[in-house]
Amino acid sequence: MRSMHDAKxxxxxxxxxxxxxxxKNFLKVLDDIRFHIRESEFVSILGPSGCGxxxxxxxxxxxxxxxxxxVACCGEPVKGPSPERAVVFQSPVLFPxxxxxxxxxxxLKLKKEDRKESEDLASVYIKAVALDGFExxxxxxxSGGMQQRAALARALVLRPKVLLxxxxxxxxxxxxxxxxxxxxxxxxxxxxxTMVFITHDVEEALLMSDRICIMSKRPGxxxxxxxxPFERPRSLSLTSTQEFSxxxxxxxxxxxx
Length: 257
Ligand SMILES: Nc1ncnc2c1ncn2[C@@H]1O[C@H](COP(=O)(O)OP(=O)(O)OP(=O)(O)O)[C@@H](O)[C@H]1O
Ligand SMILES: [Mg+2]
Known about the structure:
- The structure is a single chain.
- The chain contains 7 helices and 10 strands.
- It is of the alpha/beta class.
- α2 packs across α3 and α2 packs parallel to α4.
- The radius of gyration is 18 Å and the shape is globular.
- Adenosine-5'-triphosphate binds next to β2 and α1.
- Magnesium ion (MG) binds next to α1.
């Protein structure tokens, strides 16, 4: 049973409004969002465009503050960004003047970690995302999928307690997307990060997650939580099973309201 006490990441009654450009009134974006995510749990968030998913992720990351409510990570209030909560965005945010290896080492240098250990760790994650041989390439010399893998390695190398991902594979072609999904599944199997994963893709959410939170249209609320019963390790063949199709249909119905 889920309890508040084993939450790795907790959002308690989060609400958020933004001022409307040129107007005096506010646009309510998030309304009383509550959830808790256990250690190593993979939770996806699905919801219509504009319902506040990125806003919620930015609040969990500490980039934005909620108007009311609390966010806590490992029992500590979230007061700003931290390497404990790494973020991967839809477009890979890499430093164009640094090569792959230095992009991945960047956060470790900021944390002033031992240079030799950092280099060894960077090599492990470069290999994990299959970028060995491309260490000295600059972002402009990589494909979109390779850039996204570098961004993933850059987040993972910090060994975050929580990994927050905002539609990380949305801009990739289908084939690259499948291979990134497989990669993330195997990395999650190995390192057991606690994951919050925003996607528009119902199949992707079902394939990857332990649980799916469905948000209403704006102002976003969590209207349904679905436990995903499929055993791990999972592979793409899961998506062609009858159980998968039944759950997919149920989620689509829920999204359509
Ligand atoms: N800085 C901001 N100032 C004003 N309004 C904002 C700001 N950031 C987001 N919004 C508004 O908040 C609402 C939710 O935006 P958000 O980016 O969180 O949606 P989303 O669910 O991630 O959508 P999508 O699926 O299209 O990415 C939108 O109406 C947007 O215009
Ligand atoms: Mg968004």
